[in-house]
Design a protein that fits this description.
Elements lengths: L1 H8 L5 H9 L8 H16 L10 H9 L2 H6 L1 H12 L5 H17 L5 H12 L1 H5 L3 H10 L2 H7 L4
Helix pairs in contact: 3-6, 7-8
Amino acid sequence: MQNVLLNVANGDNFQGDITQLAASCFKDDVNLSDLSRHLPILQDVVKGTPAVKMVTSVQTSCEAMNTCKVYQDMLHAVHKLLRLYLTVPLTSATSVRTFSALRRILTYVRSSMTEQRLNNWPLLHIQKDLTDSLDLISVAKEFIDRYDDRKKYFGKFH
């Protein structure tokens, strides 16, 4: 997708890239005949943007398409291709990291937790930036104040 968008924006030959796109897993997501008709117009849209001499990023094409709502409607196949490009992740590192963290947590505390608590605990581990901003004193007070037995055991928390 990136090659198609960059080659078109720079006025290079993009037919080989369209062929590769037709053989990819995205062939059913975009109407390729509409895309072939719309892509040459994208070059005019991008080159019509002031101060654009050479396009090195797909973001330039996105910015050019966002300058006018008519471009998005008129070049709907290009707009769809841009949205696909921007939403398809490059890697699965985030999900791999999440499952790796879950595996470490499960092996450590699997036998001592209920399913509800086990489901909530990885969220705290994964969202460390939010967890670090919690006021632990107020969390402890709320935990203790919830049941009378806790008040007896923990006493008054300051």
